Amino acid sequence: MNISVKEWFKSGSPWVWMNAGAVAISIIMVVGLLGLIAIRGLSHFWPADIIQGTYTQNGESRIIAGEVVETNEVLTKQLIEAGIDLPDDKEFSIRHLLKIGNRDVYGSDFTWVLEDFLSDQAHPEMLFAAERREWGNLYGYLRTIKESGIEIARYEGNDKSAEYLALWDNLDSRIQRALDIRDDILQIEKHEIGAINYELERLRLKERSLQLKDITETAPFIEIEQRRKELDLKYEGLQQRLLDLYTKINRDSITAEVANGKIVEVQLAKIVRAFRPNDMGVGQKSLHYAAKLWEFVSDDPREANTEGGIFPAIFGTVMMVMLMSLLVTPFGVVAAVYLREYAKQGFVTRLIRIAVNNLAGVPSIVYGVFGLGFFVYFLGGNIDDLFFPEAKPAPTFGTPGLMWASLTLALLTVPVVIVATEEGLSRIPRSVREGSLALGATKFETLMKVVLPMASPAMMTGVILAIARAAGEVAPLMLVGVVKLAPSLPLDGNYPFIHLDQKFMHLGFHIFDVGFQSPNVEAARPLVYATALLLVAVIALLNMSAIAIRNHLREKYKALEM
């Protein structure tokens, strides 16, 4: 039977198909965006082959070596107008962005080269890459290994021989030795000496507090001084151990010949790892890739956040979101319960609901300014006056930190929790409440044992929406606690273990800092994609955890709805 176009539109089928198409397009766009971020970010950790060739331009030739980071086509006419001598017989010219490393030699990590000027391209197996803690990667040929300044091994050739492989094995073992010593140094500096410095500061504040209280007894001061002497003695012992370790870690060095023929000497203490990508198989590259990924999620950043890992940012993001959730949930639930269960429904209540809905649309930077003015300067300043007078003029809570960042984001997301909880409370039938009251329960007992359990899935929905919004916020955090590089984590082994007054790192701010504030844009670009992908993964993991809790609560209290 033929159906007219008018009847087809009346049936609603076109709108169903349009909605389905819109959903499909949205899914494709989201998947495509995540795929682009994943490809651009995750490919950065794969050990790319190093090419070597002769680059000839304006009659001058030089040997160049590096990783091909990007390849594109440029209008030949545009290059000729820029003063580059090229034949005009073709419309486009190919150029490559090479990561040549050796910033201490060349002054820059990256350079553009034209395919027309690059000849004698090869992938020498003995050309190695060394990731350094400063000055970027080193690309070159290993020549000598030195111990305490004395040469103990040398190789002048560029071919793969047993002598060279023995030299390389020697280098691997010495790099591992330096890494082990560095771990010992970090253990002493960050944990043992850090704990001593933290306790010394607490003793100083305690002594200052006694002075402010005009305590005249000498016993407390003598006890503080005795403890300080014990810590000083322990500190001197750790300092001696550090001197010994630094002497050991600075023992070994290597010399390498870079592409321009210059010999560079590098301390093994400054090398993270060394590898020969042109001589690695797929299996070796896969292991290297896995090690780099693990370093990215578990290590501290280095080289102005363009190398190393982002573990402090991951830790700070998760801790801030969890603290924000603990703060926003009771405030949002109590407000929603009052508005729905206790407040008299009238003009004032409607006005409050309108205000709550309008708060959800306030720009986040406004919350940041409010958090800085009220939480940090007013509330934090008064807390310092009341509880930490001995620390003044240095602020304790009167400065941006984790607590104020979490409170600011809790204030930002509380309208979401209020609205979601109210919706959940409104869906509970009146007969359930009346049945509970008829059985002798008080209104408070009905609320706590019947109404709130049934509304708990809606509360978790509000928390999920709050997490989704708060985890990616950056603007307010720039004013109330986040920093480019935090010296320590807000959670450690020093009493009181959780330091809510400390500043912290955040994945969103890390993306902003690396992407727009980095002095080395080309090196930072892939880390922007990788960090963005990780931020999406962290938010998804937090949301899935909250969804799992919500589903559990929904199943647990399903019987109350029947």
Automatic annotation (TrEMBL):
<feature type="transmembrane region" description="Helical">
    <location>
        <begin position="310"/>
        <end position="339"/>
    </location>
</feature>
<keyword id="KW-0472">Membrane</keyword>
<feature type="transmembrane region" description="Helical">
    <location>
        <begin position="450"/>
        <end position="471"/>
    </location>
</feature>
<dbReference type="InterPro" id="IPR000515">
    <property type="entry name" value="MetI-like"/>
</dbReference>
<dbReference type="Pfam" id="PF00528">
    <property type="entry name" value="BPD_transp_1"/>
</dbReference>
<dbReference type="GO" id="GO:0005886">
    <property type="term" value="C:plasma membrane"/>
</dbReference>
<feature type="domain" description="ABC transmembrane type-1">
    <location>
        <begin position="314"/>
        <end position="546"/>
    </location>
</feature>
<keyword id="KW-1133">Transmembrane helix</keyword>
<dbReference type="InterPro" id="IPR035906">
    <property type="entry name" value="MetI-like_sf"/>
</dbReference>
<dbReference type="InterPro" id="IPR005672">
    <property type="entry name" value="Phosphate_PstA"/>
</dbReference>
<keyword id="KW-0812">Transmembrane</keyword>
<dbReference type="GO" id="GO:0035435">
    <property type="term" value="P:phosphate ion transmembrane transport"/>
</dbReference>
<keyword id="KW-0813">Transport</keyword>
<feature type="transmembrane region" description="Helical">
    <location>
        <begin position="359"/>
        <end position="381"/>
    </location>
</feature>
<feature type="transmembrane region" description="Helical">
    <location>
        <begin position="527"/>
        <end position="549"/>
    </location>
</feature>
<keyword id="KW-1003">Cell membrane</keyword>
<dbReference type="GO" id="GO:0005315">
    <property type="term" value="F:phosphate transmembrane transporter activity"/>
</dbReference>
<feature type="transmembrane region" description="Helical">
    <location>
        <begin position="16"/>
        <end position="39"/>
    </location>
</feature>
<protein>
    <recommendedName>
        <fullName>Phosphate transport system permease protein PstA</fullName>
    </recommendedName>
</protein>
<comment type="similarity">
    <text>Belongs to the binding-protein-dependent transport system permease family. CysTW subfamily.</text>
</comment>
<feature type="transmembrane region" description="Helical">
    <location>
        <begin position="401"/>
        <end position="421"/>
    </location>
</feature>
